Amino acid sequence: MAEIKQLRDKQPDNEKITINLGFVDLGRIDLLVQEGFYSNRSDFIRTAIRKQLDTHGEAVDRSIERHTMELGLRDFGRAELEQLRAAGEILHIKVVGLARIGSDVTPDLAQATIGSITVLGSLQASADIKKALADRIL
Question: How many other C-beta atoms are found inside a 10 Å radius of the C-beta of residue 111?
């Protein structure tokens, strides 16, 4: 029994979105999948989105720099936030991608150290943390 590990704590590596497409566009995608150009509808849609993001890559980069945002995955844990609290500093989180506030962070610590959160992508944090910071999530 000592070697049993809970598997449900793993967070997804991506976020699911829903889009509406016309029947003709959907049929054209299905035709390309059927012909072997793509493995499935999701593969086609991901490829199309990446191509559009590449087309606008310079604009995205300039915007990230202008808004002083971090790109990618950013974890915020108890140790980092305790250092900020000890230094009397307030953190303003700005992330394009995924921001995660660790399960070791208490709502009180988060409130004492996080001044604002702007995430373009996804924020992963406990329900208690999100509730404690609700007025700071932009």
Answer: 14
User: pTM of the full predicted structure?
Assistant: 0.68
How far apart are the C-alpha atoms of 113 and 2, rounded to whole Å? 37
Tens of pLDDT along 12-65? 677 888 999 999 999 999 999 999 999 999 999 999 999 999 999 999 888 888
pLDDT tens column, 63-111: 888 778 888 999 999 999 999 999 999 999 999 999 999 999 999 999 9
DSSP codes of every residue in the chain: -TT----TTPPPSS--------HHHHHHHHHHHHTTSSSSHHHHHHHHHHHHHHHTHHHHHHHHHHTT-EEEEEEE-HHHHHHHHHHT--EEEEEEEEEEE-TT--HHHHHHHEEEEEEEEEEE--HHHHHHTGGGB-
The residue to which tokens 């936030």 are assigned: 81
